[in-house]
């Protein structure tokens, strides 16, 4: 479950002054292991100054293509993003976990209308989804609203224009710039008026079946709210966070004392005792248990596991649905035990 594979970087493409795409060479014997659905991400593992780093990046290439590519935007103070943008070269080898994630498109045989709202590097999984719709659903349409500071900061700007030119009656791109005024683009940020313009004005004749949102948490929350005000149902909205600013909620269960924890991963059982004020993932890693994880911030699903005995509460959850929680799933990076014993199965997901 938590296995990483050494993959060679085939090519590094400079997308903007602050973003590069890493294209990986997938050996023939790993093609099945690294097959993916549009919208999924990979976790990259490396070391910096003797410390292990894991980072999740969405695939921007389409399933079934010859490309296996992610895009990394440099973040001030970021450890891996700085390395990727300034030090990596073609031929370097990185440890990569096979694709995962639930922010996906499942191609349909029906004709559908899709819309996406993306900001900054949130375009990466959206591009994979767009390419898949254009290829697999030959009569479906896609409307993308994409926010950036300027044209120079717009990842995949040229590629999106080329796709729009190739599919002029099926792909529609609305660029939004907060720092510069451009012809045929919106000025400002993606806000209420922007969303209403898309769904109630320019594309009102397109009843949208699904909305994909990716970018900062504030944008996702705002756009979701406006869509719901327009009658869009929860199950029509899919979102993926790159960062989260949500405050942790107070745990309601018993957080005093210790819990005897048993973890199952890769068909092996491990046991340890932990203080209930800590989270399960942190203590598992302290005990050198090779459990899967990536962001450690509750915004991906890499550390998802199922509770088979006992209870735990999450201090933050923006990934799991109510039904999944009811089935016993938790994000172990956010889970505090609240019972004397707790059994968690990473294999049963």
UniProtKB/TrEMBL annotation:
<dbReference type="InterPro" id="IPR050415">
    <property type="entry name" value="MRET"/>
</dbReference>
<keyword id="KW-0274">FAD</keyword>
<dbReference type="InterPro" id="IPR017927">
    <property type="entry name" value="FAD-bd_FR_type"/>
</dbReference>
<dbReference type="InterPro" id="IPR039261">
    <property type="entry name" value="FNR_nucleotide-bd"/>
</dbReference>
<dbReference type="GO" id="GO:0051537">
    <property type="term" value="F:2 iron, 2 sulfur cluster binding"/>
</dbReference>
<keyword id="KW-0408">Iron</keyword>
<keyword id="KW-0560">Oxidoreductase</keyword>
<dbReference type="GO" id="GO:0016491">
    <property type="term" value="F:oxidoreductase activity"/>
</dbReference>
<dbReference type="Pfam" id="PF00970">
    <property type="entry name" value="FAD_binding_6"/>
</dbReference>
<keyword id="KW-0411">Iron-sulfur</keyword>
<protein>
    <submittedName>
        <fullName>Flavodoxin reductase</fullName>
    </submittedName>
</protein>
<dbReference type="InterPro" id="IPR017938">
    <property type="entry name" value="Riboflavin_synthase-like_b-brl"/>
</dbReference>
<dbReference type="InterPro" id="IPR001041">
    <property type="entry name" value="2Fe-2S_ferredoxin-type"/>
</dbReference>
<dbReference type="InterPro" id="IPR012675">
    <property type="entry name" value="Beta-grasp_dom_sf"/>
</dbReference>
<feature type="domain" description="FAD-binding FR-type">
    <location>
        <begin position="2"/>
        <end position="106"/>
    </location>
</feature>
<dbReference type="InterPro" id="IPR006058">
    <property type="entry name" value="2Fe2S_fd_BS"/>
</dbReference>
<dbReference type="GO" id="GO:0046872">
    <property type="term" value="F:metal ion binding"/>
</dbReference>
<dbReference type="Pfam" id="PF00111">
    <property type="entry name" value="Fer2"/>
</dbReference>
<keyword id="KW-0479">Metal-binding</keyword>
<dbReference type="InterPro" id="IPR001433">
    <property type="entry name" value="OxRdtase_FAD/NAD-bd"/>
</dbReference>
<dbReference type="InterPro" id="IPR008333">
    <property type="entry name" value="Cbr1-like_FAD-bd_dom"/>
</dbReference>
<dbReference type="Pfam" id="PF00175">
    <property type="entry name" value="NAD_binding_1"/>
</dbReference>
<keyword id="KW-0285">Flavoprotein</keyword>
<keyword id="KW-0001">2Fe-2S</keyword>
<dbReference type="GO" id="GO:0050660">
    <property type="term" value="F:flavin adenine dinucleotide binding"/>
</dbReference>
<dbReference type="InterPro" id="IPR036010">
    <property type="entry name" value="2Fe-2S_ferredoxin-like_sf"/>
</dbReference>
<feature type="domain" description="2Fe-2S ferredoxin-type">
    <location>
        <begin position="259"/>
        <end position="349"/>
    </location>
</feature>
